[in-house]
Amino acid sequence: MTTEMLTYLFIGASFALYIAIAIWSRAGSTGEYYVAGKGVHPVANGMATGADWMSAASFISMAGIISFIGRDGAVYLMGWTGGYVLLAMCLAPYLRKFGKFTVPDFVGERYYSQTARVVAVICVIFISFTYVAGQMRGVGIVFSRYLEVDITMGVLIGMGIVFFYAVLGGMKGITYTQVAQYCVMIFAFMIPAIFISIMITGNPIPQLGFGSEVTGTGQSVLEKLNGLSAELGFKPYTDGSKSTIDVFFITMALMVGTAGLPHVIVRFFTTPTVRDARKSAGYALLFIAILYTTAPAVASFARINLLNTVSEASYKDLPGWFSNWENSGLIAWIDKNEDGKIQYTDGHPMAGKPQFTAERGNNGERLVSNTPSAGNNELYVDRDIMVLANPEIAQLPGWVIALIAAGGLAAALSTAAGLLLVISTSVSHDLLKRNLMPGISDKQELLAARIAAGVAVVIAGLFGIYPPAFVAQVVAFAFGLAAASFFPAILMGIFYKRMNREGAISGMVTGLSFTFAYIVYFKFINPAANTADHWWFGVSPEGIGTLGMLINFSVAMVVCHLTAPPPQHIQTLVEDIRVPRGTPSRQPEVQGGTPASHPG
Amino acid sequence: MATPQDPKKAAAAAYWRENIRLLLSLLVIWFAVSFGAGILFVDYLDQFQLGGFPLGFWFAQQGSIYTFVVLIFIYAWQMNRLDHKYHVNEEEDDV
């Protein structure tokens, strides 16, 4: 069978599976729609969280980025996993005990304020749409690359699938679909990684191969890579280029942002007990860590392969994958010195992204209309090909390539579905039921949630088809805003009983406005000034959420001590969520003595 | 409302104190492996080799992630013990 046939087959089969699961697990009540009836086993919830969390960016782009930035990749690796420690210990168990449906629900109740709830809803919607726009685009790109349909068609197919299981199944449908998507995704990521690790180091476990010797050289992978980099004029792979303070702030912003992302938090509302919520966070990180510890290994192997294959090679002798990816526009070569060989070194080969003309050059390469830059580098390589081209570079059979396509789609669709659900829940539950139309019945609320999900799918699809130019610029927003708004508000809501409405709201508003203003200034108003010299304390816009978070904490502390303490029922609520069992606010807790509370 | 002598209140306060102590000790490790070994002291640690890795690089790209996973499972296990000790575990009479 051809690779294309296999790709259709794999994608078709995986989609049929997702739809079958959606039908089997469709939601009948708001409880099922919002939190899957709180009946999800911790292992299943861990897998679903992994799929929910790992997006097209984790699956396709992360290893590629690390491959090009070497040491600085640690920012993403630690930032996107370390947040789970905060989530597991500081937020998840208490929010599960709180036992409601959404993050704005908690913020609104804990701070006894509709204003706080509305601020939270706006943040949720903003963060989720920022995030989902990239996912839908990712779906379109994967389709167009592997199935040769155009991106619009790809996005429409993706919308149809997400619409079906998010609208019909709600959280219940999404959860079990995500379990399946996790399996597809991890399998698709690991198979090529294992093969390429065997090829380069002889060790089948990529995490170990990463620290082993490159077969036949007596050098470790990293030594080899540093040596190759030095030879070709790149800086050493194990050296970073970001300042320590920036690395510190970015890592912190990503960690805290991860812990504050509403679509991740809400997953911990679905477990049966508080105890399961804790365990589930452990499984979630375990499942995520499988991919996240493999990614830097893949990054280094792919880098060795790339440098060995292209450097000083004559264009005509290059393997087929090179021209395949050149044809899809992700590789471009300008023969500056006209020797027919590829010079690959540090620096940009041309101004901007390659704009191809219809013509071919002397060696058969695709010509570009960009102005060549001054340096010696002749090669443009898109970072995304490091994962996508891996199977081809390693000369793996067609079914592995088909698997990667299915895996990339699973990654993008699962995250998109989780985000769309959070958006629809915020609208139907927090805006309608809790604010505008408190009288509606469970059934009407469910209908509203489905309509909201449908509308959100359409908007997300439009973002995918007509990507607003700012999408790539605002990824830092999602994390920065989550870090500067939700995380402090929730954390203080649990751990600081004295925190009141006035403190929390002023903290969220100042943290949020500060972070927003800083990012907007450097990304939109004055992008030319976006360099370390102009940043405050040397902190880039990617890391500024950390400062926003600190501002949030400080303002909240000052304001809460100038205003009245929260009412007694709120203090009781806080005491209640700190203890896994019972609801003392409604029925006084029986401590110790009764047989019922003494199962052991 | 409850006075400090109230035994229920006192038990809840003791449970919360132990919880906080566990939380803080685990977070110290969390900070030490990631922000400490992976970022602040990375250049110093890079003098040492762990297999094919400079030690600081290993913490930044592999070691801290393994530690995070272990920390959460230790937390879940210790909290279950604490729940039983203070009889606040969710069994039998739970909703």
The SSE order of chain B reads HHEEH
Rg over CA atoms of chain A:
25 Å
Helix vs. strand class of chain A = mainly alpha
Record field, number of beta strands of chain A: 4
- Order the strands across the largest sheet of chain A as they lie in space: 1-4
Helix-strand topology string of chain A? HHHHHHHHHHHHHHEEEEHHHHHHHHH
Q: What class do helices, strands and sheet pairing of chain B give?
A: mainly alpha
Write the topology of this structure:
The complex is a heterodimer of chains A (600) and B (95).
Chain A: H1 3-24, H2 30-35, H3 42-53, H4 56-69, H5 74-98, H6 103-110, H7 114-147, H8 151-201, H9 206-209, H10 221-232, H11 244-260, H12 262-265, H13 274-310, H14 320-327, E1 331-333, E2 356-360, E3 366-368, E4 379-381, H15 385-388, H16 390-393, H17 398-436, H18 442-465, H19 475-484, H20 486-495, H21 501-525, H22 544-562, H23 568-577
Antiparallel strand pairs in A: 1-4, 2-3
Chain B: H1 7-40, H2 42-45, E1 49-50, E2 53-54, H3 55-85
Antiparallel strand pairs in B: 1-2
Helix pairs in contact in B: 1-3
